[in-house]
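Let's sit down with a protein and look at its sequence and fold side by side. Once you have written the record down, we can walk along the chain together.
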Amino acid sequence: PVAGGGGDAAMTALKAMVAAGTYPTASQMLGYTVLDYAEAGVMGDLTETAKKEGWDKSVPAALQKFSVYDGKWVAAPVNVHSVNWLWINKAVMDKIGGSEPKTFDDLIALLDKAKAAGVIPLALGGQNWQEATMFDSIVLSTGGPEFYKKAFNDLDEEALKSETMKKSFDNLAKIVKYVDPNFSGRDWNLATAMVIKGDALVQVMGDWAKGEFVAAKKTPDTDFLCYRFPGTDGSVIYNSDMFGMFNVPDDRKAAQVALATATLSKSFQSAFNVVKGSVPARTDVPDTDFDACGKKGIADLKAANEGGTLFGSLAQGYGAPPAIANAYKDVVSKFVHGQIKSSDEAVTQLVQAIDDAR
């Protein structure tokens, strides 16, 4: 394993291995990275296994876009994470008399209540991928599903430079006023721990945060609350951990197939995702063993998959290729940390950065 939240260090190590021609049998990776390596011709072929086990029918089309290349299965999806969640400490929520925020303004009012009670309102780690992950939700909330798709999946320039995008940056400026002074550089799981301990009210984070609550023996609706980011109900911004399978010598292929088969087995999909906080990467896994947040996540994924509102997270490597995602994270982070002074300037820089990265 390679240490470091967000996976950047692991991807750097993988790049070096592939450049040296020492392919791993499998590597955990995210969407566009899988496609990049597939394009480079270094991925294996799991199609025979996929056919035998019916992956085509059970894995959502949005995930197959990243796990199938040129008609060949090159990766085994492990899970579906969604990023448009609020994680709230219930004891703090009860103490301040708060209720589920349905609009962005409701959320700001809730953060004000926490501030007045002397609690850190928003737990955030000041790393670019965390800031951009939160901004994904803000953009969906501010502009709605069609706008999010246009801006962050289609990279439509009119949407990127629109008044709606400016308003999204205005909303980001509003919300980051509620973080504590020590947020810069904090790892995401330490921000989650602030909510678990009751030092902070809320974290905006993908459902991998729920894994931390579960590990701390906390129960949904008793110790913590999971709500969709206000204004994003009915849509899911997703990422998915995948095991990309490399083109390896025959003596390693049996292990590769065994890993892929185990990864997509219903029993593993249930057991693993219950612990990780995510939901299964196949739609035919019963929700029996999942807690209230997991059941909601599974139902939301099914509805979004059927309703055409399952969108790739730009911050998490599922909205656009890595160069564009990195340019996006960079602009959002500069705005959060005051290097970009206004929403107008942020939009100009975002359009420019994405243009340069295309």
Summary: The chain is about 55% helix and 10% strand. The longest strand covers residues 85-89. The domain at 20-81+240-312 is CATH 3.40.190.10 (D-Maltodextrin-Binding Protein; domain 2).
